[in-house]
Write the structure tokens for this entry.
Amino acid sequence: MTLRTRILLSFVLVVGVGFYFLIDYIIEDLRPRYLEAVEESLVDQANVLAGILEAHMVNGEIQTESLTQAFERLKSRLINARIYTMLKTHVDERVYVTDDKGRVIFDSAGLDVGKDFSTWNDVHLTLQGQYGVRTTRDNVEDPTSSVLHVAAPITHEGKIIGVITVRKPTVSINQFIQTARPKLMIAGWVAATGVILLAILFSFYFTRPIHRLTQYARAVRDGKRVALPKLGSREIAEMGRAFEQMRESLEGKKYVEAYVQTLTHELKSPLAAIQGAVEILSGDLAPEKQHQFLNNIAVESKRMHALIERLLELAALESQTDLQVVKEIDMAKLVASVLDRSLALLQTKQLQIHREITPGLLVRGDPLLLEQVFQNLIQNAVDFSPPRGAIAVALRSESEKCCLDVIDEGPGIPDYALGKIFDRFYSLARPETGKKSSGLGLSFVREVAELHGGKISIKNREAKGVTATFMLPMI
């Protein structure tokens, strides 16, 4: 499981659990908040009604006729109130009044007149000068049947002479809660989903540089030529630069060791020839023999010079992680230019050249490096072609790639050498002279191909000869 996936799953788990408990807490807290709002309004109503009764007292006695008349009229009153999603068609409040002993002297429903309510909290506490309130279920087994009772004292000359209680069922509160519950759940899960989507974006943003750095490290491990990618954030970028410096240090050490070993091996042969010629020249020799050995020294010196020059070119190329010069190149023109300059080379062995060039194939790259690649491939084809043979050059497109084929009629590549031809300093003897080249040409071609995002392949033909195919991405 990737780091990005672990971070995302952990975040989703934390957010999901957090939002679940938050939504559950809010829903559970809805009922007390609704009850508080209703209770507050009932306090106002109870005290208003208590004030009205106090205003209509006769000789310090509570008069309830006005309440009786009001509730009688209320029975015939039509109500059609749309309160958001609830339609209210009747008054569900009930009022009762008790004397200073807690005995009911008025009940708007006419059910409890004469009963002793002195033990009920709303009446008992109010008669003691405290805030009187209670909640009682009409049906003990049904929690939704709760009824809220809020009382207010009725006073005369500073003394509490009775209690008025406003009784309100919580049925409407239950309806409001049932309406609000799904909305809250939807809003909560929408918010959670939004947070999770935002987390996905942040996870992608923060882990993308790590993913790029991982791909870069794997490419370096596999020996691929890659440049350090853009890593964005400061800390990741610093880690990437540390990786790059470590790679350069390790590769530089291995690079120097490999080159020193191979160069030493390759220089042994010409140095031995020069040393042998010098020892022979130190004795008495005929002039023609002296000329022969001096010529040997010159040839071997040129060979060492050419080897060192090609090695420097290849070393400079291998140290690049990207192209220094990038231009739009018409490959048909480049191939034609190199072939025109190679006519003299072809004539030395009386070779025929067959061209099959597709015009209009454009690539991006370094023209000088691509010319050197083509010259190397032509030189190899000439070296291994028999006199008066033929070389075919084809420029074509295939799967959005520009392909350059160089085909000769030589002896082909032995099976044992197929896996080594791109190795530095590995070379096959030329059929006519038996001599080997520096063994750096195809290494150079491969490096140029990788720098351009392309590749080089060399295969034996079924009949005879070799096909070298150099492929580059087209524009």
Summary: The chain has a mean pLDDT of 84.
